[in-house]
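Technical note accompanying the year-one report. For the benefit of new consortium partners, we illustrate the data format agreed upon in the data management plan: each record pairs a sequence with a structure-token string. No post-processing was applied to the example shown here.
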Amino acid sequence: MYGVSFPDMPGCISAGVTIDEAVRNAVEALSGHVRMLEMDGDPVPPPRDFDAIMSDPELAEDRDGAMTTVIPLIRDRGSTTRINVSFDLGLLEAIDATARERGQTRSAFLASAARKDIVD
């Protein structure tokens, strides 16, 4: 089991059986935590840069044996926006076929693919 904590986001934690799962879960945890802060009218703490976190003496014990990575904040705004994008026809056909196979709409498939690429 791998645990995830956010030095600049007290109370936000996550975990996963594998490192990849822990990172995926951390993206969701961070998004949900920020959304709750915003809904409660609380300020969202600004993130420090990597060097500031690595040199913070208060985090020295937490860093011991830990792996440090950047987790992207993907805000869940709770609303969708229509956009206009262009694709090669062959790619669009492959997107539509794969979305159909998975029981997804084109939009859901593209959003899922974008999230995966942002996290990876």
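Partners are asked to follow this layout when depositing records. Helices lie at 19-39, 50-54, 60-63, 89-101, 106-119.
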